[in-house]
């Protein structure tokens, strides 16, 4: 794939200086340089391969993660893996489909049950999806799966893919944009310095991203206001002989009112298990990993470099907290989004506005997810007020104790959106210069709780089963799809398909004239679906070829709509933004700013 230069032995015309162990690799134009081989970088490589694009992935660690950072691959992510043909394999790695999902609030392992959040199993949600065929549901339920298993599964897929050159133990040190591409430096396992030249590169290299720092891009946000101690234990089963273990181990979480830096691992575990009561001593055979860190809620001001050759995804541009499960899932959405845009450009049909739309679309969604995660955190922070004067009664078999537990139960049942806010995952609307807008006064109002089915330009089109039981998503083309419900003879779809063909744009014409239920849900006769499943344009007819040409040129980024959103972030305006929920301050973190108490797994 890459033209590798070792000791000057190459016919590419490049050179190396063996004296200082410098090696130069020039990647073909159709090969994307990826810094970071975590879940985001690996998903990006797999997504690019799906579109026939090669990639080189450099990951600083020798192995995939040991940290159980993520437990839930959300519905939007599983829809993406379905498109990639990987969702069944993904589910084979995770919690069995019949196992329900529970989040239990109690005063301690030997204490009292206060309340539960009860979520459906995959099988139960599938039944709801089948019965509620009104467009409000995702095509795929979520999947519980530890990130330890998730990353190893993805790495194995990448290792077997001839379009992916995956190198673990290689640390990317820096990168810069040039007029025609990028130049990056990295250190291999032996300490040799390598220089890479590529047309495009993507930094998926985590919270301390060297790519983001190289581009001089600051972060907006602040700390979540609490220190966190994470401990991963190899086996708790001897302490809980009746516990049935499934992939994705149960998690114990509690507030420990001490300095986490000074707390011994075993003592912290005993206090967490004891909850409101005395420490509960468990049989601990081995603490596999330990990390203290301070969670941050931050979003980068830019998701790409000024020359549009270097892009950023995942924690490199938005750092979240676990509440809501938006962090890694947002990164997966970033990866698939930029993959579709790079594929369009590298296949020759996409224009510069297509790449620019990545900034316009993903930045606002990142702000949305960070704000919502902070809101979920504030729900838990509110518990401190409830317990302020009553904590001593929490375990009591008294009227005061029962009333306090009832108050907490009612509070958490009222504020239970942490894993139920489907709107945050599926209902956001992109606004960019490659989406043909409609009258903004009639735009659907965003609802964080629910996805209200719509084909408004920029939104994810609704899932619906057709009359024969086929999911409409499964009939989409790999690239663009024109969904045609019209029974009129003059709908003009031919104008659009001809315009796409003349410009080399892969467009599938999906005719569904008999699908009245789907037509009612989708709301328009003609809907143009982008590779990422979002709507690029819709209407009931196309009147002439000139209109069709404009539609195609806009959605593939050759031409842009007028008065679209800005590509630049107004830092002075952002400084006036209110702190994200769950934080007490908001500031601009410049590239040389060192986040306090950055955990080992965040670096």
UniProtKB/TrEMBL annotation:
<keyword id="KW-0560">Oxidoreductase</keyword>
<dbReference type="InterPro" id="IPR036188">
    <property type="entry name" value="FAD/NAD-bd_sf"/>
</dbReference>
<protein>
    <recommendedName>
        <fullName>FAD-binding domain-containing protein</fullName>
    </recommendedName>
</protein>
<dbReference type="GO" id="GO:0071949">
    <property type="term" value="F:FAD binding"/>
</dbReference>
<keyword id="KW-0274">FAD</keyword>
<keyword id="KW-0285">Flavoprotein</keyword>
<feature type="domain" description="FAD-binding">
    <location>
        <begin position="309"/>
        <end position="371"/>
    </location>
</feature>
<dbReference type="InterPro" id="IPR050641">
    <property type="entry name" value="RIFMO-like"/>
</dbReference>
<feature type="domain" description="FAD-binding">
    <location>
        <begin position="32"/>
        <end position="225"/>
    </location>
</feature>
<dbReference type="Pfam" id="PF21274">
    <property type="entry name" value="Rng_hyd_C"/>
</dbReference>
<dbReference type="Pfam" id="PF01494">
    <property type="entry name" value="FAD_binding_3"/>
</dbReference>
<dbReference type="InterPro" id="IPR002938">
    <property type="entry name" value="FAD-bd"/>
</dbReference>
<dbReference type="GO" id="GO:0016709">
    <property type="term" value="F:oxidoreductase activity, acting on paired donors, with incorporation or reduction of molecular oxygen, NAD(P)H as one donor, and incorporation of one atom of oxygen"/>
</dbReference>
